[in-house]
Amino acid sequence: MAILILGLILFLGSHAIKMCAPQWRSGMIARLGDNTWKILYSLVALAGFVLIIVGYGQARVDTPWLWSPPAWTGYLTGLLMIPALILVVAGNVPSNQIKAKLGHPMVLGTAIWAAAHLIGTGSLAATVLFGSFLIWASADYISARRRDRRAGITRPAAGASGDIIAVVVGLALWGAFTFYLHLVLIGTSPMG
Questions:
Q1: What burial letters (b/e) apply to 130-162, b meaning 16+ CB within 10 Å?
Q2: What sign results for the dihedral spanned by CA atoms 12, 16, 21, 23?
Q3: I need a surface site. Which of 22, 109, 128, 165 has the fewest CB within 10 A?
Q4: 65 three-class SS
Q5: 3-state secondary structure of 154
Q6: Which long-range contacts (CB under 8 A, 24 or more apart) does 99-103 make?
Q7: Which residue pairs, CB below 8 angstroms and at least 24 apart, start in 88-93?
Q8: Alpha helical stretches, state H, the chain
C-alpha cells in the first residue's frame, strides 16, 4: 500500500500544484523556464503514475475488503463510465459545446470515473485509489471554474462536430474498455 500512496502523492500532488500553490508554480516557471518546468512536472507525474500502477497491483492482492458490492454495482459503474469517457475525450477535442459549457470536462470525467469505481469496488486499496482521485478531481474542478470566473475566461460556443467526435470516440473507448481492455489490463471484467 505504501507504493500506491507514494504514487498518489506524486501524481495527484503534481496535478494539484496549480490549485494549491499557484504563486510557487509561477515562480518556478519564471526561474526554470516553461519547457524545463514542463519536463520536470511530467517526470514527477509519470513516476507517480507508474508507482500507482505498481502499488495498486501489489496492494489489491492482499487488501482487506471494507464492503462487498452487490453484483448490480458493476453495471452501474459501467454505465457511469459512458459520460466519464465522453467528458475525458471532450476535454481533449478542440472547440466543442461540452467544453464551452463545463469548462474542464476532463477533470469532471475523472471525478465521475473515480466515483463510479468507488461504487463498484469495496477493497481498501480501491477506496484509497479512487477516493483520492475523486477528492482531487472534485477540488480541482471547483478551483479551475473559480479561476476561470476570476480571469473572465469563457469558451466560445462551437459547432456540433466537436461534440460528435467526443461522443463517438468516448463510446468507442467505453466499448473497448468494457468488453476487452479492462480484462486484459486490469484483470477484471466490468460487466461480469
A1: bebbbebbbbbbebbbeeeeeeeeebeebeeeb
A2: positive
A3: 22
A4: strand
A5: coil
A6: 99/155, 99/158, 99/162, 100/155, 100/156, 100/157, 100/158, 103/144, 103/145, 103/148, 103/153, 103/155
A7: 88/113, 88/170, 89/165, 89/166, 89/169, 89/170, 89/173, 90/162, 90/163, 90/166, 90/170, 93/162, 93/165, 93/166, 93/169
A8: 2-20, 22-32, 34-59, 72-90, 97-102, 105-120, 124-151, 161-176, 182-186
Ranges under pLDDT 50 in the chain: none
Separation between Cα atoms, residue 122 and residue 60, nearest integer Å: 11
Give the distance between the most distant pair of CA atoms in the chain.
53
pTM over 0.85: yes
Domain boundaries of the chain, sorted by first residue: 1-59, 65-192
Tell me the backbone φ, ψ of residue 60, rounded to 5 degrees: -75, -15
| Ramachandran category for residue 187: left, alpha or beta (phi over 0 → left; psi -120 to 50 → alpha) | left
pLDDT at res. 192: 63
